[in-house]
Fold:
Amino acid sequence: MFCRALTILGGLFLALNAQIAIAAEFITVASTTSTQNSGLFDHILPAFTEKTGIEVRVVAVGTGAAIKLAKNGDADVLFVHHKPSEEQFVAEGYGVERFDVMYNDFIIVGPKADPAGIKGMTDVTAALAQVADQGAAFASRGDDSGTHKKELGLWKEAGVDPTASSGNWYNETGSGMGATLNVAAAKDAYALSDRGTWLSFKNRGTLGIQVAGDTRLFNQYGVILVNPDRHGHVKVAESQAFIDWLRSDEGQALIDGFTINGEKLFNANAQ
Amino acid sequence: MDALLDAVMTAFSLILTMDADLVEIAGLSLNVSLTALLIASLIGLPLGSLLAMARFPGRRVLIIVLNALMGMPPVVIGLLVYILLSRSGPFGVFGLLFSPTAMIIAQVLLVVPIIASLSRQVMEELWREYHEQFRSLGVGPWRTVRALIWDGRFSLLTAELAGFGRAIAEVGAVMIVGGNIDHVTRVMTTAIALEVSKGDLALALGLGLVLILLSLATSLAGYLVKEFGERRYGA
Structure:
């Protein structure tokens, strides 16, 4: 009886697995938590799949981790937001060419009480310097993501080394944007966030936008085909079709049309 | 309190409406973890029996190592399997990364030590009790193992449940090797992690409650099998 049950169970799993393994045409895209958490992919990908029959499998990690995945050849397309790293990725021969896709902006969110008194400031580095001066709690990604790299760049411009106060007022969460916002909400801390994740984020507590609009808070997203010369298994035709579609009128219009509560999350700007 | 209430409501509405995404995600969770459990048992039960019955050099070391591996963090196993299955790794040519198969492999590695260690204990006691008889009857080793597994089947069920619990509950390994890809490798635990990162705590906790219900149902099924089985065949 035991053996028969095992056989039946085994057969069942094989059947189930076979069902999962239907060989569909698919590409793997290494992207960032900001694009996934905001819901952008759920909004645009069905149209592409319907048109081309190509399934897009998105692995959402931080920009730094996404670039490592792509370098290892574990993705066909890289879709992230830190231009210097992306250009380096191409220059080192890991990617074919980098294209602009869309942009939005970063914002500094903080608790309603605003202990550093930065609300409404338009100079982001001055605001950060003030946060440091006051020793007001700040939650950082600390995960080598695009947002983290951006934040470190801004601190540098502000002439502050926040990592010297790590564990004091400066909290490095080492996790995604949403997780970091959860920490900020719980600790009444400031944080640098991309607008897309912020708009779709639900557990805000008393957090609100404190600083926005500085040109230095510009956030450009780019897409790159992983170099098939380096990784022969890269699905070039399908991946190129996806990149072309993202930059096409149809793809760009869909990106522009993605809103949450009437607010636009990304602005398409492919050349 | 509100969040908790919200979560309970969310969980019930997800279950009552048989939410299509939920059914798919829960189905994949069960499929991956039960397959991993089956494979881990095929490896772990013989390994546990061998450790219980045979005496060979390195046996004690192996037992200690297996016991230690029961506490291996899933994220480390995930990383190990990632490095092995990555296109740049030794098994990269198979293209298994970010597939349910990769998740099963990782969970097998997580579950084998539990099955092997716990079954060794069960088998050791049975072996101590019966090995004189088996020896005097001249029963071969393979039949002895089968007889012992059959005799200890209800105790071994506990080992199976522990293994299943480890597999279905872990998030670290399947997140790394599965990638939490929607409709492909998203399971209950990675879906929960995703909802937490979106700040949708009610939905996350709702999914968590569904996962707890799944575990309860499995554990109840195990208990019933044990109860009725023991009553029918004797303990």
